[in-house]
# Entry
Amino acid sequence: MLGMYRLSTSRRPRADARRNYDRLLAEADAAFRERGVDASLESIARRAGVAIGTLYGHFPSRRVLVGALLRERNETLFELGDGLLAHQTPDALATWVRAATAHAATYSGLASLLASGLDDEASELHTSCLRMADIGERLIAWARESGIVRADATGADLTALTTAAAWLREHMSLEGADRLITLTLDGLAPARPTLAGTR
Amino acid sequence: MLGMYRLSTSRRPRADARRNYDRLLAEADAAFRERGVDASLESIARRAGVAIGTLYGHFPSRRVLVGALLRERNETLFELGDGLLAHQTPDALATWVRAATAHAATYSGLASLLASGLDDEASELHTSCLRMADIGERLIAWARESGIVRADATGADLTALTTAAAWLREHMSLEGADRLITLTLDGLAPARPTLAGTR
DNA sequence: ACCTGAACACCGTTCAAGT
DNA sequence: ACCTGAACACCGTTCAAGT
# Structure
């Protein structure tokens, strides 16, 4: 339900307001897919058939608009993360990194927004960034204790890899991004004992 | 000599033209450092004390301006690459990747420009991108034959890593970028024999 | 309660007119 | 040969006026 109107204080939003909100969201999604997250807000309002002031009335900043569009997508991502944490299959880490990367590459330019959203408390994307970082943190902690990654692997490694790979998907090929993920995950593997050692 | 005037057809450029060219370059460098590669051209012209038309007269596009600023920096990078290829020390690959990354992170936003410059033949950055890719290609070929990286390691892996790490430097921490380089290089190492094996 | 669109500031780019 | 700056198009953002 992409166009779900967020209930504010008032119980029933005016019918035209709701329709405008939904149309703006739909057009913004289309524009962001075509032109990236910096697409012209004025063109979005035009395509939605409303005045530019209406867009600002519903979405006071570009980040609010992006945040609204990402809400559901975030939920399903978080559910995946929780599931991975619960089941702890061997490929949980790889699955998570690839899913988070795909999410961060939803729109071109989103990776930058997420990268700054992690530090910037004022950003509307901040809490979802924290949530993503937290899932990564807990996954890597589990992986560390299970001995399937190096002892010095950190949550920051995951967010760096995730955002960087998302950027790669936008600017180079999808395969290149996936390849970087593969290589980095291999680099995260613990040094294997060379001689007799444990097996 | 950052401000070296490029000799065009005419032997002696007019004195004011040369001065404007140099001042524009200097102000552009400052602006790009402060605001990234998308800094306002109008403000650059203003700060250089010339009309906007003068900027366009010397630099018909933003990419030409960036290309002019990067020329010397490119030269020293290429010389480093050639040196590494000649000497073939064990850490040649790591040295190259870090140097190329630092270069691609000269200005914020440059990584994107270089990524597109590699494919776009019309870009003024295209030849230098090709040159960088070529050095990487030859370095990784040598490393492959020396057995210090996996057999499936490719030049594309290096450019992906380089540009992605440069983007990371711009958007997250310098250490995060370096860490990704370390992990990926580790991932590029050949699978070590687990039991008896060679050596 | 919400919408409209003019208003302001700023920018990229071109080009006729100057020197 | 080079410089100037007006001109055009486009955009982000705000806000008084409408319904």
Observations:
- The radius of gyration of chain B is 20 Å.
- Chain B touches chain A at residues 111-112, 115-116, 156-157, 159-161, 163-165, 167-168, 171-172, 176-177, 179-180, 182-188, 192-194 (CB under 8 Å).
- Residues 40-43, 52-53, 56, 62 of chain B lie near DNA strand C (CB under 10 Å from a C1').
- Residues 138 and 164 of chain B are 20 Å apart (CA to CA).
